[in-house]
């Protein structure tokens, strides 16, 4: 099987770098330095969110990296308490100020909020895109029915649904819905929060390829059509290692063995405000 060095996922007009750097739980100087390390390693996709309370640190990392702004795909997310039309635009303006940017490349609704009409939220999100504050828009943590409702309500195209996805969790319904609608699936917690690193199947496959279990999981994700992944680490060695996945390829048997690891209880992110999952 030829090595797939695909670097972006094409989705409704967006070219999303297939491997991004997540910043959840990274703060202050640690976050800024991690962003700079990631960009120095070759990452060109940086993911943050309003609720992470690190947009300012991410912005410092971007500014200090020496990488041109137009080479970096920056994503942030609107939190649940900012989804009314009267609040959403102001919250994005504040995010841009913290990031030190005049626009983000991708703006997501972080979680569905049943207390705010989705029609209102999608109208406000679409307007922010038309104003030039975001090049692209999308959603996060949306089950299929809610995602397709959002697509129908938005006047601008949605380019991704960012959801938990790793070998322990079957996301086939969401992935198929994304593909049907020309969208990408962006995988957060792609390493299963570290719980899968010692799985015997992953370890065996990793040994066969001279790679780590983490690298195998990331390779498994980005070899799937329409999938991008955003691993997070504050460790410079891990940041570098996680990006070193473009020099090998998994065969069909390896891919199938990893798909078979999914379990009904494999979801690791399930807060009290979560929707009814597919």
Could you say which structural class the secondary elements and strand pairing correspond to? alpha/beta
Q: H/E series, N to C?
A: EEEHEHEHEHEHEHEHHEHH
Give the termini distance in whole angstroms: 32 Å
CATH topology: TIM Barrel
Bin the helical content. 25-40%
CATH architecture: Alpha-Beta Barrel
Average predicted confidence as pLDDT: 96
CATH class, anyone?
Answer: Alpha Beta
Q: Spell out the CATH superfamily.
A: NADP-dependent oxidoreductase domain
Count of individual beta strands: 10
Count of domain modules: 1
Number of helices: 10
Q: Tell me what portion of residues adopts beta-strand conformation.
A: 15-25%
The geometry reads as globular
- Main beta sheet strand tally, sense and closure: 8 strands, parallel
Regions with little confidence, pLDDT below 50 for 5+ residues: 1-5
The value of Rg in angstroms is: 18 Å
Across the major sheet, the strand order is 3-4-5-6-7-8-9-10
Structure notes:
The protein has 278 residues and is of the alpha/beta class. It has ten helices and ten strands. An eight-stranded parallel sheet has the order 3-4-5-6-7-8-9-10.
């Amino acid at each position: 099987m030829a090595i797939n060095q695909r670097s972006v996922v094409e989705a409704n007009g967006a070219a999303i770098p297939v491997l991004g750097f997540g910043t959840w739980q990274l703060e202050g100087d640690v976050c800024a330095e991690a962003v700079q390390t990631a960009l120095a390693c070759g990452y060109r996709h940086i993911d943050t969110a309003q609720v992470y309370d690190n947009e300012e640190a991410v912005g410092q990392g971007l500014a200090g990296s020496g990488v041109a702004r137009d080479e970096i795909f920056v994503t942030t997310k609107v939190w649940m308490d900012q989804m009314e039309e009267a609040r959403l635009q102001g919250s994005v303006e504040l995010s841009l100020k913290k990031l030190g940017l005049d626009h983000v490349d991708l703006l997501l609704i972080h979680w569905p909020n049943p207390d705010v009409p989705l029609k209102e939220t999608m109208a406000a999100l679409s307007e922010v895109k038309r104003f030039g504050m975001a090049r692209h828009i999308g959603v996060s943590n949306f089950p299929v029915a809610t995602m397709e409702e959002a697509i129908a309500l938005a006047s601008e195209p949605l380019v991704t649904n960012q959801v938990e996805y790793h070998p322990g969790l079957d996301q086939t319904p969401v992935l198929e819905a994304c593909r049907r609608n020309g969208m990408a699936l962006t995988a957060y917690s792609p390493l299963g929060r570290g719980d899968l690193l010692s799985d015997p199947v992953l370890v065996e496959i990793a040994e066969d390829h001279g790679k780590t279990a983490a690298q195998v999981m990331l390779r498994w994700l980005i070899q799937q059509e329409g999938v991008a992944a955003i691993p997070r680490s504050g460790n410079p060695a891990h940041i570098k290692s996680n990006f070193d996945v473009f020099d090998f390829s998994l065969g069909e048997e390896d891919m199938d063995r990893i798909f078979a690891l999914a379990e009904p209880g494999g979801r690791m992110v399930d807060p009290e405000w979560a929707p009814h999952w597919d």
